[in-house]
Design a protein that fits this description.
Elements: H1 3-16, H2 25-44, H3 50-55, H4 61-65, H5 67-91, H6 98-121, H7 126-146
């Protein structure tokens, strides 16, 4: 799904509830967060297939750059989103509920770092890479559960 799609769903949901839509800091945050998250997920999605791609000489970005480098890039993007969420809570306390933003995104960052370390220790084998990619979707689900409390 594109960011425009998410903005449209957000708009439709707010309007269907009879609420006026406005570009508030939480709305901008959610759209930006989801866009960056999907960039990272799109980069990481090919990691489980790198072995097969290399075996059959399929030149994917993950096969060319390597699973470790792709993971580091994706992790960096995700950490930027988490740090951005924490910064938003600190610098815009009137717009965000600091406790849930700070606590939630700090926990998400720690979970991500733990999973990246676990993937690295498993040497990016297919099963570990698949588990990591599935973890990213579970982490995004947790973010969606957190959104009403930001």
């Amino acid at each position: 799904m594109s960011t425009a799609h998410h903005a449209g769903v957000l708009y439709a949901t707010i309007v269907s509830l009879g609420l006026p839509f406005q570009w508030s800091p939480p709305n901008v945050f959610i759209i930006t967060y989801v866009a960056l998250y999907f960039v990272a997920a799109c980069l990481i999605k090919d990691i489980p297939d790198v072995e097969g791609d290399m075996k059959y000489n399929i030149r994917t970005f993950a096969a060319i750059v390597g699973p470790k480098n792709i993971t580091i890039l994706g992790m960096g993007i995700l950490l930027v989103t988490f740090i951005g969420a924490i910064a938003a809570a600190i610098y815009l306390p009137q717009a965000f509920k600091g406790y849930s933003m700070l606590t939630g995104h700090l926990i998400f960052a720690l979970l991500l770092l733990f999973q990246v370390r676990k993937l690295d220790k498993a040497n990016y084998v297919q099963e570990a890479s698949t588990n990591f990619y599935q973890f990213l979707w579970r982490l995004l689900s947790l973010e969606f559960l957190l959104f009403p409390f930001i």
